[in-house]
Design goal:
single chain; 168 residues; mainly alpha; 7 helices
Length: 168
């Protein structure tokens, strides 16, 4: 069960771009949770999963001696879900999801792109956490900060789009 959990349903075993594969799985699951349960549930579930993941990753690293194995993608889930719970933090029905007026789909996709950018490039404190913090906190920490940054930037960009539309 631990391997299933930390590889996010084995999506981390993808031979190419396991982090992106895990992020796509996380995006789909996160959107479904937002639609059916709301942003608060997604946020609280992310905190719970992050705590469990830190413990599971610590066990894995103690057992294998491998820090931040690229097959571990539960950190991508935490980052994506934090981004989604910050940016498109509106509850919509499945039919309203494709309505571009509410911004749900645009912010979700923008959160995904920004999260992957921050996760891959690791600017500023994200890179520092990745380099200097060991164990499960180090593995999870950079993605959590990248997720918050992506969510906030996505929300700011969406609000900019809304403001520009009101001026036109």
């Amino acid at each position: 069960m631990n391997w299933f959990f930390i590889t996010l349903g084995y999506s981390g075993l993808s031979p190419k771009a396991p982090g992106t594969a895990g992020s796509i799985v996380a995006l789909i699951l996160g959107i479904l949770i937002l639609i059916y349960f709301g942003a608060q549930t997604l946020f609280l579930a992310t905190i719970l999963i992050s705590i469990l993941a830190i413990k599971a990753i610590n066990k894995y690293e103690q057992k294998t001696g491998i820090h931040d194995d690229n097959r571990i993608v539960i950190d991508e889930l935490a980052g994506m879900w934090f981004a989604l719970s910050v940016a498109p933090a509106i509850s919509v029905s499945f039919t309203e999801m494709t309505d571009f007026q509410n911004g749900f789909l645009i912010q979700s996709l923008l959160s995904f792109v920004l999260f992957r950018y921050f996760d891959i490039t690791k600017p500023s404190i994200i890179g520092r956490i990745d380099r200097e913090t060991k164990g499960g906190i180090g593995v999870m920490g950079d993605d959590i900060i990248a997720g918050f940054a992506a969510g906030i930037l996505s929300a700011v960009i969406w609000q900019g789009i809304v403001q520009i539309q009101t001026l036109i």
